[in-house]
Amino acid sequence: MKNLSVETLCVQGGYEPENGETRIVPIYQSTTYKYDSADEVGDLFDLVKEGHMYSRISNPTLDVFEKKLALLEGGIGAVSTSSGQAANLLAILTLCKNGDHIIAFNNLYGGTFVLIQSRLKDFGIETTFVSLDDTDEEIESHIKENTKLIFGETLSNPSVRVFDIERYADLAHRHGIPLIVDNTFPTPYLCRPFDFGADIVTHSTTKYLDGHATSVGGIIVDSGKFDWNNGNFPCLTDEDPNYHGLSYTKAFGEAAYITKARVVFIRDLGTTLSPFNAFLTNLGAETLALRMDRHSENALTIAKHLQASPNVAWVKYPLLEDNEDYELAKKYLSKGASGIISFGVKGGVEEGKKFIDSLELASLVVHVGDIRTHVLHPASMTHRQLSKEAQEAAGIEENAIRLSVGIENADEIIADLDQALEKSQR
Ligand SMILES: *Cc1c(COP(=O)(O)O)cnc(C)c1O
């Protein structure tokens, strides 16, 4: 299936039933698998043989979903996780331990920012936060002997800044470290970060990949292209006493990273996706291409409409011609920029709240990226645990509304936004 288009892979990727097998991916609701001999199970434990052993580590329904995402992103393998948070945590832990250092951008999703700033710090992993405004020299000046990776978001939540993947991949590679990008907002339908040099991609599959707001989940995809044998990653090249002295690079070659993510971190931390959630997310992903086209089309129409509204102070959407990232958006998001718009209601926080409370079709939910239109006020909700300075650095203005444009009729969404904007100014 490798050479098929994204549209076809969304529908059929990852599952090729044999004669007489179910056409739809079955839900393998089983924790365990039966074997005929003790030696066979021993071989599974030693990673000498491939196979399912216990559903904390792998499961055939998850396997289909993981194969689909690897195909969609153009990677060599993927590991699903119980949430997007778990995906980002494991993506980093697979390369870092106590005493290591990473570089991360300061405009990340609030949950990821706090995870990196506080939890990883508690684990002894230090982070230097850098900004999209920094020069390459400024960023490079923070790279030290123990720096293991650079982490960014393709399209940031909620400030919708576009990440110059090629630039930061080159920068990372000059220093022998990989670039990890969280590709949640574009999805592989709108942008494939590996095509621009990124090494590892993560997703909160909770958002557009599921698309229907049914299942929390995440995934890590490996491009298989990074050379771990450059001396900077003894965690992948050296012998692991937990597996009788196995070296991941020697045993698994280009799949060293993604194999370790599963057989060490999914196994030990237990951040496993459930088969039922994998089934639902895979079902959602089957219509991803259609949905992303409609989300993007609706969002661009609505962003332009908001720009012309007397009750709106400012609008950010990457494919608006006056957006600061318009050139980058044309390069990385040429098919569309997804459904997320950030805008300010004229006035301040009070007007913003009145706007939210007056909506009828769009709802207030703590979520983004599903088929229904909804709104959220990041400063008082998803990003409320960030300091004022961190909020500013993340590009979250006090009156910013995050609008997640659904696939309903655009005129009807606009009519609802207009009436609520009107009420906000009374
Ligand atoms: C939501 C989100 C996450 C966290 O994912 P969960 O599935 O909620 O754990 C991470 N990154 C981005 C960009 C997100 O939007």
Task: Write up this protein.
The chain has 17 helices and 12 strands. It is of the alpha/beta class and 426 residues long. It has 2 domains: 6-284, Type I PLP-dependent aspartate aminotransferase-like (Major domain) (Aspartate Aminotransferase, domain 2); 290-424, Aspartate Aminotransferase, domain 1. Helix 3 packs parallel to helix 12. The N and C termini lie far apart (57 Å). The structure holds pyridoxal-5'-phosphate (PLP). Residues 83-85, 109, 111-112, 153, 157, 182, 184, 204, 206-207, 216, 218 line the site of pyridoxal-5'-phosphate.
How many domains would you count in the coordinates? Answer: 2
CATH level 3 topology of the largest domain? Aspartate Aminotransferase, domain 2
By DSSP (H or I, 4+ residues per run), the number of helices equals: 17
Report the β-strand fraction as a percent range: 5-15%
Poorly predicted runs are none
CATH class of the largest domain equals Alpha Beta
Strand order in the largest sheet: 1-7-6-5-4-2-3
Q: SSE order, as H and E?
A: HHHEHEHEHEHEHEEHHHHHEHEHEEHEH
Mean pLDDT equals: 96
Would you tell me the structural class of the helices and strands?
alpha/beta
Main beta sheet strand tally, sense and closure: 7 strands, mixed
**Overall outline:** globular
* Number of strand segments: 12
Query: Could you estimate the helical fraction of the residues in percent?
Result: 25-40%
Q: In the CATH hierarchy, what is the architecture of the largest domain at level 2?
A: 3-Layer(aba) Sandwich
Rg from alpha-carbon coordinates: 22 Å
CATH superfamily of the largest domain: Type I PLP-dependent aspartate aminotransferase-like (Major domain)
Separation of termini?
Answer: 57 Å
